[in-house]
Amino acid sequence: MFVRIGRFAATHARAVLAVAVLFMIGAGVLGTTAFGKLQSQGFTDPGAESSQAQDLIQRNFGGTSDFLLLVQASSGSVDDPAVRDAAAGLSARVAADGELSQVASYWQTGLPALKSDDGRSALIAAHAPDQDKVEDLVSRYSGEQGPITVTAGGSAVANVDINDQVTKDLALAESIAVPLIALLLFVVFGSVVAALLPLVVGGIAVVGTFAELSVLGSLTDVSVFAIQLTTALGLGLGIDYALLTVNRFREELANSGDTRSAVIATVASAGRTIAFSAATVAVALAVLLLFPLYFLRSFAYAGVGVIVIAMISAVVVLPALLMVLGPRVNAGRLPWRRNLSTVSPRWARVARAVLRRPLVTALPVLAVLVLAALPLFNVQFGTPDERVLPVTAASRVVGDELRAHFPQNDSRAIQIVTEGQPTPAASADYTRRLSQLPGVTRVSSQSAPGAERWTVVTGGDSRSDQAQDLVKQIRALPAPGDVQVGGDAATLVDSKHTIGSRLPLAAGIIAVTTFLLLFLFTGSVLQPLRALLFNLISLSATLGVMTLIFQDGHGASVLGFTPLPLDTSMLMLLFCIAFGLSMDYEVFVISRIKEARDHGASLRDAVVDGLSHSGRIVSAAAALLAISLFAFGTSGVSFIQMFGLGTGLAVLLDATLVRGILLPAGMRALGRFAWWSPGPLRRFHDRFGVTESAPAPREKQPA
Predict the structure, then answer these.
(1) Which of 2, 353, 506, 673 has a CA that sits 20 to 30 A from residue 633's CA?
(2) Boundaries of CATH 3.30.70.1440 in the chain?
(3) Residue 695: pLDDT band with limits 50, 70, 90
(4) CATH superfamily of 344-375+507-683
(5) How far apart are CA 597 and CA 548, in angstroms?
(6) Is the pTM value of this prediction over 0.90?
(7) 3-state SS string over 309-349?
């Protein structure tokens, strides 16, 4: 099949390039409309009990207090006459604002829960029904107003602050990564023309995926954070696939001297590797569709889209471009790169050293990886709030003040709601039993036509283990009617259950499909098992290091974040992407080893030959991708930092320690069983598997 694709690309090169240009123009026009359709939410399960409680509160009580104005006295107390007059005027304006509802002000109600314990600040609480209007509301009410200073916060403002911060961070990350990657591309490819080819593959993938997100954004909810994955993964895969293709093309061109034959042979070998590599990465990201959180599902939409488009671009468009360029792919050669050989003597020496002493080289690597994974035993899971932001962000300032000086604040209380009107006696009895639960400091109730609501305030953090235990106790408590329990603590409990309950199925699908793909690729049942085991070890090490940093706080002062329990959604995303990219490099290396073995090389010679041909490609691709990912470490949002640093670390560990040391050591340990399969599976592979194509015979150019 890949030989036919290569012939098609070589024969119709200019037509393929013309179609690619038209696709870029059309996708570019459509893709520009994507940004206005993407959403900033999606961290919760819409079918969970906490989400249903939120919907009931919104429908029957006008929503929760998600827009808070922290009013601080410039001097003295919030009860001083000048402060009271200014705050009362502000309260009246907020109450009359048609874009806010359920307004409650300390200066109008006198509720002690709305006043800080030091008397220097108080709250005006409201609900913002339209998230799109929140930024205008913040500008409208924030700032110094005579004797008071007003700061906007709450979950609605935190969403705006996170989105604004991510937008700034993305621009900063790109300003750091793009120049470095551009410079290193010239060094890695050795010529100006070749260095531009990854931008072709990556550009088509990114623009095409933006168009896909625009279409999906019109049909369903898609997270705005999918933009970051699209750009990072599109550029990364563009580099990976272009490195593999261009290096193979140079090799074939040097062997045959004929551009057409070189293109066909390149697609027959490198194209097959890219297709299987793309399939393994796509499977890892596609399992995110199992989760109902559209934050995660959005990464499946973007990830699978960018992978498929990048693969098609690398297998069809790039060979057509190489057909047009021919030997000119080496134009603009750097002066110090006289030899553009694809073989790396350094990686050959590494392979020989590992094969000579596999235990001496592999055991220290395994020890380091296992040691790095140990913090995972103490991992804690959470959901993001304003503490993922810098301490100077407005919503973070308000949140810190609430935690420090508003012990009775109910903006993060546990919310209980039921449709139907319980009798006053039943409601009072339920309130009494709620107040007797451990950790409860205050319970209040509110009635509406056809509904009842209870607000349970606790003394500790709303996302603490105690708060989560309290949610479970409340849900087990007999209630007057069919109650739904919501609030921050309930949302965390439900999120952990949503992801945890589907995690075994997701892991099973990834493992089984990866095993099948690698079996079809190699014909061995032991190679997929070895690859899965090594990936599990390296990913555990990565997640252990992330636990040590972002949960336990080692390096927090340097990176500028607040240690928190790890975000469950972001951990799942990190695992899937890192696993997919690891398998990407596995396919790159094992394809060259198997090719040498199929041509009659011994196991030792095949491993040395495979690493010498693929080691430089894998390490260079990993380094370039890691730069793009590590740039997210400059983010002001801690879960974005964790994603960038974690994925970048996973890529580097895999490309160096796993592929360079553990893979050849594992091959040596397997010995003559390295390519073993039971008879029935061997016959199945002979019939349905894909074998490495030999280089295509040289074809004469038509006169």
Answers:
(1) 506
(2) 67-153
(3) very low
(4) Multidrug efflux transporter AcrB transmembrane domain (1.20.1640.10)
(5) 42
(6) no
(7) HHHHHHHHHHHHHHHHHHHHHHCCECCCCCCCCCCCHHHHH
